[in-house]
Amino acid sequence: METKPIDGKAFAAGLRARIAEEVAALVRDHDLKPGLAVVLVGEDPASQVYVRNKAAQTAEAGMASFEYKLPADTAEADLLALVEKLNADPAVNGILVQLPLPAHLDSMKVLAAIDPAKDVDGFHVVNAGRLAVGLDTLVPCTPLGCVMLLKHHLGNLSGLNAVVVGRSNIVGKPAAQLLLREDCTVTIAHSRTRDLPGVCRQADILVAAVGRPEMVRGDWIKPGATVIDVGINRVPKADGKTRLVGDVAYEEALGVAGLITPVPGGVGPMTIACLLQNTLTAARRQKGL
After folding, report:
1. Which of the residues 54, 118, 173, 222 is marked catalytic?
2. Phi, psi (5° rounding) for residue 146?
3. Which of 4, 91, 203, 266 is most buried (CB neighbours < 10 A)?
4. Predicted local confidence at residue 1, as pLDDT
5. Catalytic residue among 115, 119, 121, 247
6. Mind listing the pLDDT tens digit for each residue in 1-13?
7. HSE value, Cβ hemisphere, 13 Å, CA-based, for 41
8. Catalytic (active site) residue 4
9. What number of other Cβ atoms are within 10 A of residue 235's Cβ?
């Protein structure tokens, strides 16, 4: 069987182009320029790169980009005060506090302080609850991108067996909720699942989101299944350098899976594109459009 890689980079570029057209129409017809505020606390190198990319793509889409870089020893009260200021700023339609935060800051408390209407990461408990009961809401960006790719390549997902490996609030749980919304039969599997390989082999759609390099082996995959690999793991090479791998053993999956997202170039590019989509959605809803 020939396995077809899913080109998330190309799909994300197309999505960003469509968003830019819609932003231009909002500016022209309603004098509304969506604004995204990103807050970065500390010097985490991966977060710094991610925030730079977000700022560049926000500007390319024609949106206003607001960046707040705070020192690692920022007091929790000061961070919460900044969030309240952004909640009240009409120029800011979306707020994203970059995770992980330094250890002395309570991530849940900070996320809970964000106005749910501006929570473009979709992590606020109100938005998580709305997703769980099937109401329109702002959805976490990575699982939203996964489902967009699935619908683009498979069309109607109704009735398919979907297995999500991983139960995080950021990817696993919301991905399962989104797949339920598409009328899939959904199993959430994790490290305590009995016969995890056997459970995975039942999946027409297999979403791997555990953060463990190449944990999902080729013989865990049902022939012809669609594999969405959310993992981004840096592992050492023989020459002392590193390379990026997913949560799926990609080379083993080739010839077994029907479709698969590579790492890099699969799910990763969708995350920022969906963040821009959420910011556009938030801006429209806040203005009653």
Report:
1. 54
2. -60, -45
3. 266
4. 83
5. 121
6. 899 999 999 999 9
7. 23
8. no
9. 10
